[in-house]
Structures are given as C-alpha cells and as structure tokens.
Amino acid sequence: MIEVKDVSFTYPNGVDALKGVSLKIRDGEFVAIMGQNGAGKTTLVKHFNGLLKPTKGEVLVDGVNTQKVSVATLARKVGFVFQNPDHQLFCETVEDEVAFALRNFGFHERTIKKRVTWALNLLDLAEYRKTSPFMLSGGERKRVALASVLAWNPKVVILDEPTIGQDYKQKERLRQFIVQLTTQKKTVIIVTHDIEFVAECNPHVVLMAQGKILAEGGAKQMLTNPHLVAQTSIVPPQITQIFLELADLGLPTDLIDIHEAKEALLTFLEVNS
Amino acid sequence: MAVVETKDLTYTYPGGTKRAVEDVSITIEKGEFVVLTGPSGCGKTTLCRCFNGLVPHFYGGKVEGDILVKGLRVGEHSIHELARHVGLVFQNPENQLFALFVEKDVAFGLENLGVPRDEIRKRVDWALQMTGIEDLREMAPHELSGGQQQRVAIASVLAMQPDIMVLDEPTSFLDPLGARKIFEVISELNKELGITVVLVEHRLDLASRYSDHVIVMDGGRVILDGEPREVFNSETARVIGVGIPKAIRLSQLLEKSGVHLGRVPVTSEEASHVLKEVLKRD
Asked: Is the Cα torsion angle B15, B17, B18, B21 positive or negative in sign?
C-alpha cells in the first residue's frame, strides 16, 4: 500500500528530519511508529499523504509516486488526523465539521447526511451534532477530528497521537475500532508515545531514532528489548517492567500482555509448588 | 493546612445547560501531590480553571458554592492576584505560549510581578535547565514541536515558583522517557520545595507512583477521593473505566485465581517486590 524508498527529507531551515528511510506497509496492516520527540515520526507520516515530498528518494502510495499527484487527490485514499485537533477544526458545528470534506469531495447531500450520522455514532458524538467543536473538551475535539476523516472512508488512516486526552474507555473503543478497520482491509498507521496502548493493541512496531528507522517487528519483540527501548526514549510497558525484575527467578521477560503475565505466574507457581 | 478547598461547588459555562462541575467538595492539603482523573469531559479541566480564577473571571458563567485558595475566596480576587499562588499548565501548550522567544515566554510572568532583573534571569535559567530546554532559549515557541512546547509551558510556570502547580495533562505530547523526566522534576519540587501539585492525567501507570492523593471525577462530580491504593483498587474505579495501573490489575487477576499477594502494589517496583515474596514462598 505504502512504499518508502530511501527517503531523506530536509526542512527549509536546514534540519535533516529523515535520513535514508525505507519502509513497506501492506494493505490492512496496523503499524505503530514510535520513537523519541524529534525522531522524524510525524515528518515520515506526512509523506504518506503528500503533505511533504521527499528531498531524496520516493514514496509510492498504491503504486503512485506522491511527487506526481496533489494532496487533494491523495487525501481520498489517505486520511490524516493531526496530533492537535485545533489544527484541523474550524466549522461552527460538529456536524458541519464532519461533513466538510465530504462536501468538498462532491458527495450527494443524502450520502453526506448518512455518513455524518454514522461517523458521529461511531465515535459517541451524536449528542454534540449541533455543538461548536470549540465548546468540547480536548478529548472530544480529538474524536471530532477522527470522525471527520473516517466519514469519507479512506483506504489508509493515519492517526498522529490518537490517544492524547482520551480516557481508558475511549482508548479501548479506539483499539476495537482500529481492529475493525483492519479487518475491512484498511491500513491504519498510528504515531504514538502511548506505550500501554501499543502493548494492548499489539501492532507492527516501527522504532525511529534521529531520522532513521532503528528496527521494526512485532510489538512484543520491540517493546521488551531493553537495548532498543533505551535508544528510543521509550519506557517498557508496566507488565514488562515487572517481569524484567523477576528475570532471576526464571520467569520470561518478553511479556507485554496482562493475561499472558497472569498465566506465566500461575504456571510458575504450579511447577514450583 | 488546606491550600485548596471547595465547598458544594457547582458551575455552568455561559450558555451551557449541563453543569460542568456539580457539588464538588474537596480539600487539598499543603505539599500534597494530587492526581485528578476521570473520563474525558468529566469536569477535570473545568475544576482546574476554578483554582486560578479563570472560572469565573475569564469564562463567566454561574458559580455556586465556595472556592478557597490559600484562604482567598476565588470569586473576590483577580486572576492576576491568584497567579502569584497558583500556576496552571494548560492541556494545549499553544494556548499558553505567545512570545517571540522561549526565554521571553518563560520570563513573562515574573516580569509582570515586577521581580528584579537578576532574579528573573536566575529563575529563567533554572526553569529552562529543569525542563531540559536550555538550547531552545532563542527559538520561537510556535516553531517548536508539541513536546517541546509542553516543556516551555511547564518552564514558564516553574519559573514563577507558585505554591500550587496545576498541570493539565502536561506531558501528553512527550515521549515516555521525556514524560518521566518531567514527572520527576515535578515530584522533586513537590518534595523539596513543598509545592502542592495537582496533576490531571489519564495515564495512571506513569503518574500514580508520585501521588499521595487521588481524586476521580465523573459527570462533573467527585466520585472517589482518597489514597491511591484504596481508590484504584475500588470497584467504582473499575466500573467507570479509569485506567487502573497494570500492577494493580495484575494483582486483582491473581487474587481471582486464588493467589494472594497480601498487599496491593501500585508501581511496577512494588509489584515485582511482592511477587518475588510470593514466588519464593511457594
């Protein structure tokens, strides 16, 4: 779906944000891009919808080189939800906000109405239909931004820090929702610092540091490797931290899931009693 | 000594029909590290705005009941006066930063209070150092990343050395290690200078280790108020869906399977400690 070939990117102020990045993301894949502040995560994903074009190398979306198409064309395929919802919201009501892109894409009013209702229900925003986005809490505004992108049904959804300001239940809903999107063969890419969320979602993880990809692999493999974790300013998930301390008793240290952790402890107690 | 006290506090935003805060009576003692949490839209941010007078002076609306900050009735004192006592770090750093240079932003509050120049320089240097952004001093805040802006926002409140620091999800844009460093700085200020901290946070795995008092809100009301261990281990916390730290949830799961840990762990260190005892015992 997305192919990044040896991409480098330098901002006009001379900052080299990406230095020779190559990455392949398949249809229906769920990818989390992690790494410290300033590692180049957001710069990388802005290449996926053509907001940024590589200084060197190329990015192919669905086989099309992003240099050769406009952001508007790419947007139909690649929806982008920004880190800060205030960069995205501007309409007077939540409903208009969610309908905005649909109108731009020229959908029929009836379809727009249906899609808006669908997206608002999905994100638990129906009661705010006629409310100004700016009356809502930070977490709610974030959901409006997400609803407005999902409404036009893009093939790829990029979420920059989707869990900021979201409570536990909404994170759980977001997780289920991402799973649902991937079963519909949609590609979901998140940029996140939320280690516990990643541990619960278990996506493919791409670790970045200083404009490069340091490693990629399963969440478990990436988050429980103390060496990789240290290089990317990540703190291992709480379950992993507990088990790293128990390593000398002979318990596994590559655990991120709480139920897995419980089973490991029960097995240990059974064997050793 | 209570530094923040609310009595039957109820507040509705102008034009709003729903009460953002309802019947809230809490007491925060001097030197406490309070974690304020609850589902999104539960009124946490609004309650914080009451502590420095943004509610009602800036937002307007109708306040019933009492808010006392260091004995001062908030409704009767200006935001400016209250700012000497209460520093608020906003959820969205962009709403807080406005100067052309980071250094200017951090110095702004002190200049307003008429602090002598040398003292301003000293405190700004200190605040920039504590938050690890000395190298950003000459940058424009609007050119910085979300994480960097959050550090600047924290530095500008730190520089004021208020008696009470209210931080509304202050590290949400920071990477986990960066967030931990900031929490450690805040915890140090709390322990060493006795600054009272009110931290709004959803990520309780990160925050609970520093806290000695947890307040949980839901639908504008305070529904739990007490010591972290007791609050997070309560049935109510589970039902309303607070992100209970994994250490506690693991101990609850084990308890259900008949493994008794004897003590409820809040942090990963405590968990591995009590688990070691249980695993060695058998």
From this structure: positive
In Å, what is the CA distance from A228 to each residue of A191, A234, B177? Answer: 17, 9, 13
Between chains, do A35 and B177 touch, taking CB under 8 Å as contact? no
Q: What is the mean pLDDT of residues B250-268?
A: 92
Residue B195 burial (CB count, 10 A): 21
- Cα(B173)–Cα(B182) distance, integer angstroms: 12
Tens-place pLDDT, residues A115-150: 999 999 988 899 999 998 888 887 788 889 989 998
Q: Does domain B2-239 have CATH number 3.40.50.300?
A: yes
Give pTM, 2 decimals: 0.85
Q: Is B241 on the interface with A (CB under 8 A)?
A: yes
Q: What is the mean pLDDT of residues B158-180?
A: 89
Quote the tokens at residue B130: 């504590």
Inspect the interface and report whether the beta carbons of B279 and A268 lie closer than 8 Å. Answer: yes
Residue B10 has pLDDT above 80, yes or no: yes
A residues 1-30 closer than 8 Å to B (CB): none
Q: What is the pLDDT of residues B220-230, one digit of tens each?
A: 999 999 999 99
CATH 3.40.50.300 residue window(s) in chain B: 2-239
Question: Which of 168-227 (A) contact B at CB < 8 A?
Answer: 168-172, 193-196
What is the full DSSP assignment across B165-216? EEEESTTTTS-HHHHHHHHHHHHHHHHHS--EEEEE-S-HHHHGGG-SEEEE
Residue A6 has what DSSP assignment? E
- Whether residue A84 is predicted with pLDDT greater than 80 in this model: the reply is no
Fold entry, domain A2-219: Rossmann fold (3.40.50)
Chain B positions touching A242 (Cβ under 8 A) are 246-247, 250, 268, 271-272, 275
Residue B39, both tokens: 């589902």
Chain A hits for B250, Cβ within 8 Å:
239, 242, 258, 261-262
Q: Which pLDDT tens digit goes with each residue over A22-37?
A: 999 999 999 999 998 8
